[in-house]
Write a structure and sequence with these properties.
By secondary structure, the chain is α/β, with parallel strands linked by helices. It has 7 helices and 5 strands, in the order βαβαβααβααβα. Strands 2-1-3-4-5 form a 5-stranded parallel beta sheet, with helices on one face. Helix 1 links the parallel strand 1 and strand 2 (43-48). The mean pLDDT is 90.
Amino acid sequence: MVQFNSTAHPLRHVVILGHPAENSFNHAIADQYCTAVRACGQEAVLRDLYALDFDPRLRATHRPGAIGNHLTSDVSRELGFLREADVVVFVYPLWFGMPPAIIKGYVDRVLGAALTPDSIVRNIPDAVLDGRTFATFSTSATTRAWLEEQGQWVALQHAFDRYLLSIFGMQDGGHTHFEAVVEHLDPQYAREMLDRVEQSARKLCSTLSAARHALTAREAMGAFAIPE
């Protein structure tokens, strides 16, 4: 079931971007997504991890469950954004078949801040992310067919997408992948891909808006229910 941070506030999308080049196509994807979300009357917050100089290294003393473990200021700040989010979106390139280290570090340090091995085994929902919608936009210089031949696409789906959805209790908002993204992209091809980003964003906004409306309607009906 999709859960919302509050029906009293606009729907919020937190976009986590993991690409070091400011003029990258990944940046264009993140910008297009945020623009489409805002055009739908919802909120979009962009977290550019490289611009933030986010440290992806999980220290021994900061592991969940570690004695004396405490949240650092950067992790606390990111968790604050995630607590207010209805949608969490990852945008990243595939490097050697997997997301960049800075994205994996965000998972290790932020998403997994309170998730211990015991809670995973016992299937205890994550307090921050449970019921949130999780979507991904990724790019690769190679084709998806080549990634599938190498077994990298299946590995990514199992080790990253499905696993994260499962252990954090998030809802699947889809994974959109763009292949053959290289320097000097054909403008028409780039435009077509960005159009897909906009369409995906608008569809997700519509789905979430409908789900919130249905929840609000149920709550209203419950308030007027006649006791037996």
